[in-house]
Amino acid sequence: MIGHLRGRLAAKHPPQLVVDVGGVGYELEAPMSTFYALPATGAEVQLHTHLVVREDAHVLYGFGTTRERSLFRELIKVSGVGPRIALAILSGISVEEFHRCVDGQDVAALVRVPGIGRKTAERLVIEMRDRLRGLTGEGLAGGAGSTGAAPGAQAEAFAALVALGYKPSEVARLLQKVDPAVACTEELIRHALRAAAS
Fold it and tell me: pTM (2 decimals)?
């Protein structure tokens, strides 16, 4: 099992990123909560990781904090919740907000996360109640998102939101609501997710 990676951030195209560790590029998938705290491409980064082994692929997931990784590991144990839905949950709400939803049995808030239906949300509230009590971890300090406008930021944001489970027509509508002054991919996604949750 690969527990963490520290190296140079070689590329980031939500939800994928590449970390160069001693000349080896590790491809990872990460939730948007992690992307928001990533430094600029080329800077050093450290991520906590979780490896999922499937018949057709080995997929490495990266997280900015141990709390995110711990929640991810507990979420994928829930029936009907795989890594993709777990990433969508972490992208849509923070660890703290998820705790509040479960403690307050706020099924409606969980249903607003793409890919989460009412039955899955109800199952999460029931099954995660006891598991959440054992989750601890410290945050990992990170820099802000990339600075300046990235070429094709709109296209990258569009692709990332579709990968998170939103329908293309819905993504187009959400991105139209974002202030035109927002230029980088991470900020576009952040604003679009806020619009979706409102």
Answer: 0.68
